[in-house]
Structures are given as structure tokens and as C-alpha cells.
Amino acid sequence: MENGGELMLQSNALKKVVSQTVEFWREADILSKLHHPNVVAFYGVVQDGPGGTLATVTEYMVNGSLRHVLLCKDRHLDRRKRLIIAMDAAFGMEYLHSKNIVHFDLKCDNLLVNLKDPARPICKVGDFGLSKIKRNTLVTGGVRGTLPWMAPELLNGSSNKVSEKVDVFSFGIVLWEILTGEEPYANMHYGAIIGGIVNNTLRPPVPNYCDPEWRLLMEQCWAPDPMARPCFTEIARRLRVMSTAAQSKPPK
Known about the structure:
The chain is mainly alpha-helical.
């Protein structure tokens, strides 16, 4: 009986590994077909050493993650550049959603930048490790993502199906990161963060220097109701308008 139980457990574990491997390659194939100037190019999959885990090969972005750049206080990003970076990220996400891909882990750590041109930074969406392919109008959610950026519907357990608007919620937090250069809820315990997000009583504090247009967009993105959040086409359009207006103003 013990041997039978052990074999059953091993069989179930093997089925799970096979299922995960098939899913990995299926999604890798889809990601390899993505081509957009604001999405990090996906070149393929390699084995990380003999018998090692699989690793993805992607485009190299010279300045690394946007989080790293924001932490480098000596690298000044004026309002115009921050708007361009946010707009690029929105264009990348608009493209992913047009391909029915939900990212699930959108944050500044997963936005990669190239600042070689001092006049025009480039930002691209990367790290698709948690991405899911959307079918019909909803996608299987579950608890996936990084806590401060996770939408309430991913945490409250009300449904296992969520829409692509979980990425829009995350983008609202990203806008706050780009604005402040800080990490959300850095000094809070995880339990308090979960409770605050689920109860919709917690959002990052908006500084007084935030422009009204940026604040409105940011707060609409992290709205409790997914249906009230704008789509990325609308987000990109509004950021483009804000960016164009900033061109004629002196840097802040």
C-alpha cells in the first residue's frame, strides 16, 4: 500500500512537471512572435548549464531596469523624460493586450530602459515569467504577481477569473514609482499591505507636486473597480498629450 501510494504521488508529480513544461513551451512560442519597439525582444530558450533549468534569451537594455535607474539619484530624469518612459511602457502594454497577453507582474523592476540618447529615453516591457494568454474575456488569475502591484481582485478570492485590467492597476502603481522614484509601501508589513489592498483603503500617498493630469490618470488606473480603469490605448493617448505639452515647457 505504501509503495502504491508512493508511485501514485510520483506519477502525479511527473504529470505536473510535464504539464508545466508543455505550458512553458507553448507560451515561449507565443512570446517569440511578439514584435514591438516597446516590448523587449524574446530570442529563445537555452538550458542554463548541464541538466540545469531553462533560461530565456532576450534583448539587452544598456541601463537595466527602471527601478535601478530611479534608485540612481545622480541620474536626473526630468518630467518630460518621465512622461516619455511612462508613455513607452503604456504603448508596450497596449500591444501585449492587443495580443491577448496579460503580464501579471508589471512594475519598474520589469521595465527596461536605454538612456544613451539624452534627449529621448527608451523604455520596454520585459520579464514575461508570469504572463498568461487570455482566452475569451477572462484569464485564470490565482495569486500571481508582486504584492504592492497586485490588484484587489487577485487577492480577495472572489473569483479565479480576472481581466487584463489587473495590469492597469499595476500601471497605476508604476506611475507613482516613476513620479516619486520610491518603492510603494516600503516600510509596511505584508499582512497590512494585503489587508489594505483588499479593503481598498490603501494606495500610495500622492505628493503635492504631482500634476493634476498625472494624478487623475494614476488614480483611475488603481481604481477598485476593474471596469472603471482605463484601457492602455486610452492611457497611452493621454500620456502622449501630456508628453507633447511638456515639450514646450522648461525641464523641472
